Structure formats: C-alpha cells, structure tokens
Amino acid sequence: QVQLVESGGGLVQAGGSLRLSCAASGRTFSSYAMGWFRQAPGKEREFVAHNTWSGGSTYYADSVKGRFTITGDNAKNTVYLQMNSLKPEDTAVYYCAAEEYGSTWYDYWGQGTQVTVSS
Fold it and tell me: Using an 8 Å Cβ cutoff, are 47 and 11 in contact?
C-alpha cells in the first residue's frame, strides 16, 4: 500500500498561486491513479483533479479548469497541484488520494492541507 502526505497549503490573497505537494511512500505514485479533492467548512468533499498516469488521462472539476494543474515527479515520488488565479471560494482542506487500477474508488488518502484564500 501507499502512504500519502500533503504539504504546501497556506494563506494567499485572491489572484495568487500555491503549489500543493503529495509525497508518496511505500509504493510509487505511478502505480495508482492519483486525485486531489477538497472540503470547505460545512460542505461535502468534492473532486478537484485526477490523473491516470498509465493512460495519460487528466480530469479537472469545471470550477478549477484552466487554473489548476496536476503533475507528478517520479524521481521525488511526489504529485503536485499547481493552483493559479486563486479565489476565496477555493478555500478548503485539500486532500490527495490514490486509487488502485481496477478499483471503484480511491483506496488511500492523505491527512489534508489547509488552503485559505483571502479577498
């Protein structure tokens, strides 16, 4: 199995950028499909981005399309979420997750990192 640890969250002004990191250990992240999710106070956890490394397919929520980018660094065994043009509504705890290929949902989750965007 894989362990996931997110970092890179913080406080940023609207219009700014942050890059979140998800360090994987135990197995290489490319053994999984990787996703980012977020949960704002009082709201359900929602999908942000997903990448199936083996197939090269990437998906984004409409709310972040064109502003967020999911990438991976095999040498560092780390997945990133580059977030540009941040908005106050992007404020949430961000989680990375790993899905075994063939699984019906994500199997492993990180602990989350807080992102706060001020107006």
Answer: no
Beta carbons of 5 and 94 less than 8 angstroms apart: no
What's the token pair of residue 116? 């706060």
Helix or strand run (H / E) with residue 84:
none
The closest alpha carbon to 82, from 29, 74, 90, belongs to 90
What pLDDT shows up at residue 30? 87
Q: Please state, in angstroms and rounded to a whole number, the distance separating the CA atoms of residues 16 and 20.
A: 13
**Residue 23 near residue 5, CB atoms below 8 Å:** yes
The 10s digit of each residue's pLDDT in 25-44 is 998 888 899 999 999 999 99
Residues 6+ apart with CB under 8 A from 81: 19, 20, 22, 36, 48, 49, 68, 69, 70, 94, 96
Tokens 């219009």 -> residue: 15
Count CA atoms within 13 Å of residue 82 on its CB side: 8
